[in-house]
Amino acid sequence: MNGTASQLEPGQVICPYCLEIVTYDERVLHTRNEKLQYEKLDISKLTNPLRRADVMRSAFQLCGNTEDIKPHYIPVPYLTHGRPLTVAMVGTSGTGKSHLLTQMIAEVTDGGLEPYGVKWQSVNPADHSVFIRERVALLRSGEQLEATGQTPFAEFVEALLLTGVDGQVRPVAFFDLGGEDLVRTDALLRFLLGVDALVFVVDPVLAFGLPQLDDARTQYGLEVSRSDPAFETVLDRLPRQGPYLDVATALVVGKADLLRFEPPVDRWLSEPSSVPADPRRLREESRDVYAFLRRHAAPAWLRPFDSALRCTLHFASATGGQPQNGLFPHGVRSRRVLGPLVSILAMCGLLSSNPDHRPSTVGM
Ligand SMILES: Nc1nc2c(ncn2[C@@H]2O[C@H](COP(=O)(O)OP(=O)(O)OP(=O)(O)O)[C@@H](O)[C@H]2O)c(=O)[nH]1
Ligand SMILES: [Mg+2]
Ligand SMILES: [Zn+2]
Predict the structure, then answer these.
(1) 267 with 287: CB under 8 angstroms?
(2) Of 130 and 151, more confident
(3) Domain check: are 213 and 272 in the same one?
(4) Does 26 map to a domain?
(5) Is 317 in the pocket of ligand 1 (CB under 6 A)?
């Protein structure tokens, strides 16, 4: 039976792959060798506490559920640090989900959440260095990231242990499926049923009929669209209690560099992040993004905001400019990419121990 977060007992965690309830179990631990194969780990002889802690830091547990799903392994720190928070990026292929998520995580690991009182560690050190090497370093050297493509299995791309202002640690796992997978309705999207937060990414090239986006439309061979099919599939798929989705939601107008001469986008792009998170500024930005979408895009682009109980709206640019032949010749410079994540973390209680300080529905 699938579990929901509210039914969990202490120590129980929802498997981020198959949604079954898992409990940390030292009898089914594994390590991963250099060939990326999993080997059984016997920790009974590890009596030195320092050595043991070090081994556990990069150990995995085999999930007990193998029904209709290949064997899968969960990093031990994900199971031993309290209730995880899962975040999924949503948008059709090419909207910029992977670039945005990569820059968000890069800013976190550069210490970008420290002014908010949040510290980070990796969930698995080896996976984290691969992520930094193959994504962050590549993008920052001016190369475009590849399209995510289709996968048979929803896996998180990166997970971090975040320590909130109250000292509580929470594993945060980020899912970044390809847009082609997000319009499917099969078991691959089952992970969405347990997701805690969603980042909907609006591609200005698809959403806004503004003439200054015509060149980008020609470059990508795209036309203005009335909605994003991935938004529609995901919103239809998610369970609701009452009329609204109770999932922390951010609606981000990405690639905002393409709108950098357009007020009020110009003003927000040059605005430094507010530290600590300022609910008033968050509301002002949400209101501006909402008005911009209402004015320049078809109504269905606002469906995530209309559907979610808690949603903030943002302008962000992951790269600062357009790619040319797969490269960013003027370098890569992100703008305001941390804003949506800070808002989600605030909604999920990581930025304040006081529930009154969490943002609720804004933007109207
Ligand atoms: N101008 C501009 N282009 C961007 C930005 N972010 C991404 N892009 C470009 O948008 C295209 C798609 O970016 P991806 O991040 O791969 O898009 P995706 O949503 O992950 O696509 P799938 O993986 O196919 O679902 C690439 O050509 C990127 O170079 C941005 O902030 N500004
Ligand atoms: Mg992608
Ligand atoms: Zn599982």
Answers:
(1) no
(2) 130
(3) yes
(4) yes
(5) yes
Q: How far is the CA of 7 from the centre of ligand 1 (A)?
A: 38
Both 243 and 352 in one domain: the answer is yes
Sequence length of the chain is: 364
Domain boundary residue, one of 56, 79, 102 = 79
215-238 b/e (C-beta count within 10 Å ≥ 16 → b): ebeeeeeeebbebbebbebbbeeb
Residue to mutate, 89, 93, 97, 99, ligand 1, most ligand atoms under 8 Å from C-beta:
99
Residue 120 in this model has a pLDDT that exceeds 90:
yes
Q: Which domain holds residue 19?
A: 5-79
- Is 208:102 a contact under the CB 8 Å cutoff? no
Ligand 1 atom closest to 178 (CA): 25
**Two tokens at 215?**
């060149």
Q: Does 364 have pLDDT greater than 50?
A: no
Of 181, 175, 70, 81, the closest CA to residue 121 belongs to 81
Return the ligand number nearest the Cα of 96. Answer: 1
Tell me if 18 CB under 6 Å of ligand 1: no
